[in-house]
Amino acid sequence: AQKITQTQPGMFVQEKEAVTLDCTYDTSDPSYGLFWYKQPSSGEMIFLIYQGSYDQQNATEGRYSLNFQKARKSANLVISASQLGDSAMYFCAMREGPGGGADGLTFGKGTHLIIQP
Amino acid sequence: SQTIHQWPATLVQPVGSPLSLECTVEGTSNPNLYWYRQAAGRGLQLLFYSVGIGQISSEVPQNLSASRPQDRQFILSSKKLLLSDSGFYLCAWSDEIAGAGRETQYFGPGTRLLVL
């Protein structure tokens, strides 16, 4: 079974609308971290937001927020007031375990977001 | 602030030739270092990680190897490239001191490798 599932291969959204990118995960470890990265056409992976499994509140970073529903194992990224520059691939990733060491990330297959003017 | 460099940016190599990709990090000490590969249209796959000089762990059996000769230098190598080695290679670093469980991996600009 896939550990990270992103069910939306591609999305078209009108500029200034809010966007929700879906991510579900699978782990039996009680300690884990969830990440979202943005990959523009240049290829660089840009860190957007982090959510820890024990965090009580949903993470927010500027226009980005993470809708964390632990019981459903869901960690959707919400982008408010989308901009043309938000067009990119978006990847959800998970680190299993409490961290503090060199734990690699498991990535989903990504969602290609296109913002239309 | 920390920066991470990778070179070359693009590489075209014939099958059977050797490979050496370099990654260096500035502005931090004793980082955890990672090599990932991204096949076209896919997510990233972890290849190697390192917690210190000379300490390399491999995640998948493959045609590649990694070395860490210096604290902030991570090298990805191959003696003989295969067609299947083509892809986008990304180096990343993280700082475990950042906070237990919260350390984030920051990626370099990547190297696009095409094996013909």
Strands, helices and their partners?
The complex is a heterodimer of chains A (117) and B (116).
Chain A: E1 4-5, E2 10-14, E3 19-21, E4 24-25, E5 32-39, E6 46-52, E7 60-61, E8 64-69, E9 74-79, E10 88-96, E11 106-107, E12 111-116
Parallel strand pairs in A: 2-12
Antiparallel strand pairs in A: 1-4, 3-9, 5-6, 5-10, 7-8, 8-9, 10-11, 10-12
Chain B: E1 3-7, E2 10-13, E3 19-26, E4 32-38, E5 44-52, E6 55-58, E7 65-70, E8 73-78, E9 87-94, E10 106-107, E11 111-115
Parallel strand pairs in B: 2-11
Antiparallel strand pairs in B: 1-3, 3-8, 4-5, 4-9, 5-6, 7-8, 9-10, 9-11
Can you summarize this structure?
Chain A has 117 residues and is an all-beta fold. In chain A, 0% of the residues lie in helices and 50% in strands. The relative contact order of chain A is 0.33.
Keywords, separated by commas or semicolons:
heterodimer; A: 117 residues; mainly beta; six-stranded mixed beta sheet; four-stranded antiparallel beta sheet; 12 strands; 0% helix; 50% strand; globular; B: 116 residues; seven-stranded mixed beta sheet; 11 strands; 55% strand
